[in-house]
């Protein structure tokens, strides 16, 4: 017949915090061995991937362990993974570059406006010249070829039957 086993602690229910494993002792008896909860471990705050190089500690154990085993020696060591740190550095660099470009444009803005206005004036002048040239050309053609005033003087065409 199978041996009955009673839980040693006060909580008799099979809850997440009261998990047990049946173990046979050297005397041949079956007893419960209480299991500790496993922690999920540290995860990246941005991409939620598990962090490498950081050991998993159960709740109170992490407070007793030294700081060097809880983080990696890098910026954002214990909270962000290497890829996310790299992306943050690149993003920060690009933002700084953008600010510098903005300042340069702001300092060169009056000069650029002057150039744009000069270019617009040149375009307007060339457009006026082209229009004048087109008018003159049209006038010359009109003077060379007189228009026919009497189009009805032609003989009407005969229709085929």
UniProtKB/TrEMBL annotation:
<keyword id="KW-0687">Ribonucleoprotein</keyword>
<dbReference type="InterPro" id="IPR008195">
    <property type="entry name" value="Ribosomal_eL34"/>
</dbReference>
<dbReference type="InterPro" id="IPR018065">
    <property type="entry name" value="Ribosomal_eL34_CS"/>
</dbReference>
<protein>
    <submittedName>
        <fullName>60S ribosomal protein L34-A</fullName>
    </submittedName>
</protein>
<feature type="region of interest" description="Disordered">
    <location>
        <begin position="124"/>
        <end position="161"/>
    </location>
</feature>
<comment type="similarity">
    <text>Belongs to the eukaryotic ribosomal protein eL34 family.</text>
</comment>
<keyword id="KW-0689">Ribosomal protein</keyword>
<feature type="compositionally biased region" description="Basic and acidic residues">
    <location>
        <begin position="124"/>
        <end position="153"/>
    </location>
</feature>
<dbReference type="Pfam" id="PF01199">
    <property type="entry name" value="Ribosomal_L34e"/>
</dbReference>
<dbReference type="InterPro" id="IPR038562">
    <property type="entry name" value="Ribosomal_eL34_C_sf"/>
</dbReference>
<dbReference type="GO" id="GO:0005840">
    <property type="term" value="C:ribosome"/>
</dbReference>
């Amino acid at each position: 017949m199978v041996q009955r086993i009673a839980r040693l602690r006060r909580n008799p229910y099979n809850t997440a915090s009261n998990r047990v494993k049946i173990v046979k002792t050297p005397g041949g008896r079956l007893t419960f061995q209480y299991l500790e909860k496993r922690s999920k471990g540290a995860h990246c705050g941005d991409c939620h991937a598990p962090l490498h190089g950081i050991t998993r500690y159960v709740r109170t154990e992490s407070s007793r362990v030294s700081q060097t085993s809880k983080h990696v020696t890098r910026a954002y060591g214990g909270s962000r993974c290497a890829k996310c740190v790299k992306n943050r550095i690149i993003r920060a660099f690009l933002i700084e570059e953008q600010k510098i470009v903005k300042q340069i444009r702001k300092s060169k803005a009056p000069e650029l406006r002057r150039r744009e206005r000069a270019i617009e004036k040149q375009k307007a002048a060339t457009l006026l010249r082209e229009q004048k040239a087109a008018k003159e050309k049209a006038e010359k053609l009109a003077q060379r070829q007189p228009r026919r005033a009497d189009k009805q003087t032609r003989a009407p065409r005969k229709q085929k039957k």
